[in-house]
Each structure stands twice: as structure tokens, then as C-alpha cells.
Amino acid sequence: MAFQRKGLQARTLSSEEEEKLQRDRAVVSDFKQQKLEKDAQKNWDLFYKRNSTNFFKDRHWTTREFEELRSCREYEGQKLTLLEAGCGVGNCLFPLLEEDLNIFAYACDFSPRAVDYVKQNPSYNRERCKVFQCDLTKDDLLDHIPPESVDVVMLIFVLSAVHPEKMHLVLLNVYKVLKPGRSVLFRDYGLHDHAMLRFKAGSKLGENFYVRQDGTRSYFFTDEFLAKLFVDSGYEEVAKEYVFRETVNRKEGLCVPRVFLQSKFRKPPKNTDLTDH
Ligand SMILES: C[S@@+](CC[C@H](N)C(=O)[O-])C[C@H]1O[C@@H](n2cnc3c(N)ncnc32)[C@H](O)[C@@H]1O
Fold first, then answer.
1. Per-residue pLDDT reduced to its tens digit, 204-261
2. What whole-number distance in Å separates Cα of residue 203 and Cα of residue 205?
3. CA of 236 to the centre of ligand 1 (A)
4. Distance (Å, rounded) from C-alpha 182 to C-alpha 151?
5. 188 lines ligand 1 (CB under 6 A)
6. CA nearest to 225, candidates 211, 210, 238, 208
7. Ligand 1 pocket, residue 225 CB under 6 Å
8. What gap in Å lies between CA 239 and CA 224, rounded to an integer?
9. Would the CB of 161 count as within 6 Å of ligand 1?
10. What pTM was estimated for this model as a whole?
11. Is domain 2-266 annotated with CATH 3.40.50.150?
12. Whether the CB of 226 sits within 6 Å of ligand 1
């Protein structure tokens, strides 16, 4: 059973949780950090080799949480063009395509295996979807998508996998393909999520940044950090909230506090009032 609430303040830690984070402050050596950065793509590709399409559940909540994805276009039949950046095997993408026939979706990921899984999905249809492999921190999205042609960009649990010093490169990259006045929809791990407190000593890479056993990395966001990142890249903040989910497993007597940060940022509209008065 899961309980959910939303709020503007990050989760407060218990004294034991606080102590645990204080105790495990040592960070991984520079040498190992550089190797993790170099191997980032390989490690995600191996993740999909091990888990194929079975790791993440289909995400059916996106239309509930983000009105931009609902069929609220100005006239019947109007297409919505979206980009899911870091789409994995399509757990977000396919529910959306199945729900709304007037969506055209670009989707990309830097794991070639994940991209292949998307292409092999029986719901993949080249008339409604274009998936491609790319590293969002260095490959230009304009090689695959016309400038300012996308109505909605989705960043769902992807920015957390990128090194914090490179996150702005992802935001600048998607900025180029997003139409002025349109938004980036963001959901990702929030500060003090259960996963952050479960890391063993020796997994810390930096502030709120950790490495999993398989070499994939995860950042845990505060709303301030995220807003600065977007605003410095030219966006305006539209909405933000922490989502707190308490998953109660009665059989095992476990209560797991999950924390996500859900936000929206807009590319400013073009100034149409440029004529001299
Ligand atoms: C946690 S998964 C989320 C997948 C999907 N968005 C979802 O919600 O199921 C993170 C994804 O980000 C991708 N990724 C990480 N860094 C990336 C980068 N620099 N460029 C493109 N994709 C990246 C990984 O390959 C992985 O598929």
C-alpha cells in the first residue's frame, strides 16, 4: 500500500538518519570518480544487459501529474510533439503513445541496448516515434530534431544519472529544440529519499551524489539546486513540489519513505513586441 503527499519542504531526517549521513561523509577517490565518468555509458548499457526491460515499471502517472501531456490541444487532432530525453527502454514513452494517438515522440538514450529495446517494442511505430542514441551532455540534439520544434521535453529520472557539473549541458541541449514558451517536465530523486540513506560507506561521490554497486550514479535534488541549474541555463521556474510516498509493506513490517522532486521550467516566450513605437 502506498501513501502520497506533496510539499514544498524537503524531508527532515531522524537523528539516526542524520548520524548515518554524517558518518559516511568520505568521498570516493578522484581516480575512481574519473573512471566512473568515463564508463558512464558502458555502465548503463550493462545495466540494460542485466535487466533487459524488466527493471522499471511502466510510468502511467505522467498524464495525471503534468497537464501539458493531456489532450488539451487547441483543436481536435492537433499533434503534440514531445522529447523524452534519457528514455531508457520506454517505460514513460509507450504508455503516453498508447494513451494519445495525437502524440509524436522523439526519444533518446545513451545506452545503445536501451535504444534497441525501444525499437523492438511492439508498440514502436516509426510514424509516431523516432528514437536515437545520444549522450545528452555532448551530442547535439539538433542532429536529430529541428530547432524549436518540440512542445514538451520530459526529463524523468535522467538528470540524476548525470554528473552535477555536466547537468547544465543537458539543459542547454534540450533548450535548442524546445519551442519558446513551452516547458521541460522534470521528476527525479529528491533529497533524503530512502535510496540516498541506503548507500553504504564508500559510495559517496560528492554532495548528494552517490554511486551504486553497478557503477551507475545517482544525484538527489533539492528544489534550490534544480532551480538554479535551470534558471542559469535560461529557463523560468513554473512549478515545483516534493512528492513524498510512503510505501508500507505490512507483511515485512517495512515502511519506506520515497522522496521525489517534481518541477516544471519554461523556455521564455519570444518577445513579439519588437516594433518601434
Ligand atoms: C533511471 S533511467 C530512467 C529511464 C526513463 N526516463 C524512465 O523513466 O524509465 C536513466 C536513464 O538515463 C540514461 N542516461 C544517463 N546519462 C545519460 C546521458 N548523458 N545521455 C543520455 N542518456 C543518459 C541512462 O542510460 C538511463 O537509461
1. 999 999 999 999 999 999 999 999 999 999 999 999 999 999 877 676 678 888 999 9
2. 7
3. 24
4. 6
5. no
6. 208
7. no
8. 12
9. yes
10. 0.93
11. yes
12. no
